[in-house]
Request: fold
Amino acid sequence: MTKFGVKLPTMAVATRDFTASIVVFLVAMPLCMGIAVASGVPPEKGLITGIIGGIVVGAFSGSPLQVSGPAAGLAVVVFELVRDKGLSALGPILILAGLIQLIAGIARLGGWFRAISPAVVHGMLAGIGVLIVVGQFHVLFDARPLPSGLQNLVAAPERLMGLSPLNVSNVEHAFMIGVLTILVMLGWERFRPAALKQVPAALIGVLVGTLTAFALGLQINRVDVPQSIVSAIALPGPEFLAKWVDPSIIVAAIAIAFIASAETLLSAAAVDRMHDGVRTDYNKELRAQGIGNLLCGVAGALPMTGVIVRSSANVQAGATSRLSTMLHGVWILGFVALLPWLLREIPMAALGAVLVITGVRLVSLAHVKHLFHSYGVLPALIWFVTLVTVVTQDLLTGVLVGIALSVLELVPHARRLGLKVDREHVAAGTDMALSGSATFVTLPKLSDTLESLPLRGTDHRTVRMDVSGLTKVDHTCAELLKEFLVRRRAGGNPIEITGASPKLAAMIA
Reply:
């Protein structure tokens, strides 16, 4: 159904999106505040980002079912920026980062962010997960995280040894609420009734922690949010342009734009594997993220990315269009505007507990095992070195070291890095031959070629792909090929691969 050229959802679709939006809202609320706390900024900064990510980015998104908001992947970066540059520097940095993303999307550079090695991206996320865990561990004791990941790690045993069962104080109370929240979250995920499977564990954990602290009258630190969300908006001052003269501000903006874009497009690719609907337009998604981060900078809020936890909840709850994402932003706005007093009852230790669980799950050992068994030692080494460098140095250094190591895969093939595509439409279908090197350097070309192949409904004939001419396939392109084949076959679109070497056949199986 259309009206004035705009496609309107049917009643059944709108109902599914409405219920999905409530699920996403319940997932997003504690995460928006928790990530803000992990970033060293007031909780309302994360809520503003969640509102913009839902309403604005949801409207312009190139990935209709992806949900955007504050992300754990940028919490460490923001924490260090606020610590070193002050909260006032965050706005100018995000405005510049948003402009970079917007220009990159207009220049159609979205595909290049997908060329970043999965080993680097997952190593980066694992390193961030470690930093979040060791930092938020101290929040469980109603204490602030220390300036660096190593300091947080070294100080952790002292925190535990300082607990006293005989002389119970606010510290022990806070730790009790944090541990209770973690146990409730884990227990809910394991034993929740089938009828309540859409109710997020983070919500139940925070709810139980909050009610327990309230019932016992515990004097522990709680969330501090203003009476009006409007008062939390901090518009850039007249000096914000002057900050762009500082080279460190420009480097920070480039780092946030790069990391946010990579995480967003990685999430979008994952969301595409979860449903059979409209596929992601990566350049459009990059432009939408740029608009969102630009607005977050104007409002003095946190940076945003597409977030896989909220996006997967959206898909699993039955969302079918962008209406769900937009409505979840409306629900956050309404809740913050009408019930700020309720948010002020939430213990900080409960939010810290949510982030501890989130951080642990970012460290995906299953992924590094997959890299090692499928592609050998080098990708697994890239993952490990990226993780360690992020933890011991900083996020940008870790990513750059990981990318530099990825280049080692190209050294033996430095003289023949091109990818040639021969394509012919015949009566029986489409014949295509790939020859040369399929590496992250040629991934955008390979991705565009694969996505241009006819689908059922436009051309039901078989696609035959001859890969006997490929002399090199790195793990980045192998992952792309594997995901494409799984998605295509799941959609009932026939494709035949011929000429694959035993090694390539195993990689894309």
Q: What stands out?
A: The longest strand covers residues 462-473. Confidence is low (pLDDT under 50) at residues 1-6. Residues 11-38 form the longest helix (28 residues).
